Amino acid sequence: MKRIIFSGLMLMSFFFGAGNLIYPPLAGLNAGSEFLSASSGFTLTAVVIPFLTILAVALSGDSALSLAGRVGKVYGLIFTVIIILSIGPLFGIPRVANVSLDIGIKPLLDASNSQGSISPAGLFYILIFFFISFILSLYGDKLVDTIGKYLSPALVIFTLALVVVYAFTDNVKEVGEVGKEYVSGAFFKGAIDGYGTLDAIAAVAFAGLIVNALRPSPDTPKSVVFSGVIKAGFIACALLAVIYFGLAYVGNVSANSGKTTGADILVYVSQQSFGAAGQLVFAIIVFLACLTTAVGLLKTLSTYSRNLFGLLTERQWLILYTVFSAVLSVRGLDSVLKTSVPMIYLTYPITIVLVIVTLFNKWTKDRAWIYFWTALLVTPVAFADAFRIFSDNYFGRSIDLIGAVRDYIPLANTDFSWVTPFIVAVVIGALFPKKSVNNLLLGDKDAELRRKKQRAEEEFEEVLP
């Protein structure tokens, strides 16, 4: 039981990073009186789906390639590259750098101007952050492991303390109006907000590490490991749900603060709860947690890229990821989050459907066929949703690749337009096995061979005297 509890805490630390702190408070703030519904949706995609992803990867192999590769080698490779870029230099790493800036440094000095772009002081901080991250990625294995061992519990304890103390402070608390996007579908909007944590995508990339950590020895039966993952996952999910719910609560009752971002809400709440000294301690913990997260991502992705692609040495991959992440980080947190949204709309639905199909793999007779149809129908819709967001963010107008068809897709108005194509894909794959479709389109090859043989025999008999 001790191993299970420890594994559950370790699994939670994999999911709960400092970068995820900013999402629940903002979701809680915007949800208003629809708080419970929005929080439930957030918990589904930020807690439950990542846990199921761990189980799915444990069943399929140990990597993103083993999960998506069931569709096809090319599809699996493209999916893996997108996952690496999402949790790495395009979003994941720049996010932790900017969260540490906005929560740890910005309150202490003028690191951002009113438009949210990086000031000279903020730029200097970003450069120092990535220089330290690079050096620790090369030489600081033991130091990072030691710090990380204590930082995750410290971050969790301080976050829970923050929620409890703020809940019982005497300051006036106020629930704001329900945000426009939450009025007609708070649960679905909360689920979309949960996408931002990237936990399901990160679970695809790092599930192999987690599963191996839960394996006592190489000879341990797969069923024992899988059982351990389930038990540890329940512990991790319960703790994560409590933390995310608490953070969403403090955002929900902070409408009178005038804050409009998750980072600003956390700074405000920490100051209200613990004063300047407490806010400083919180800032230090967040900074160190973000630093160790960045180092872990840089090291893991560099090693993974070397093993998967070759081409460059691990150090060269590390340099490439560090420089690219630093360049994207100087745009500021708002720009980083803006860039991430289209990528999240593309990768999260695909990840979810692959996970579901994999979990039901045991009960599907023509498995590869269902994977094929799932990818064929869901990927274009997810891409259309992503491009719609991308064009709106960068071209100033929303370009919908599926146009009027969207009006006839259930749940399309909640950004869950991929659900219906997924259901259709599963039905097609289950009711029309690949063999029957081939027979319908191409004819039964065995029957055709028999007919040819029969005709040949008849012709042979005709020429006999």
UniProtKB/TrEMBL annotation:
GO terms for molecular function: L-isoleucine transmembrane transporter activity; L-leucine transmembrane transporter activity; L-valine transmembrane transporter activity. It is a multi-pass membrane protein. One of its GO terms (biological process) is isoleucine transport. Keywords: Amino-acid transport, Cell membrane, Membrane, Transmembrane, Transmembrane helix, Transport. Pfam families: Branch_AA_trans. The keyword Nucleus does not apply. InterPro entries: Brnchd-chn_aa_trnsp_Livcs. The keyword Membrane applies. It is found in: Cell inner membrane; Cell membrane. GO terms for cellular component: plasma membrane. The chain crosses the membrane at residues 41-62, 74-97, 117-138, 150-169, 194-214, 226-250, 276-298, 318-337, 343-361, 368-390, 416-432. Component of the transport system for branched-chain amino acids. Belongs to the branched chain amino acid transporter family. This is Branched-chain amino acid transport system carrier protein. It comes from Psittacicella gerlachiana. The gene is brnQ.
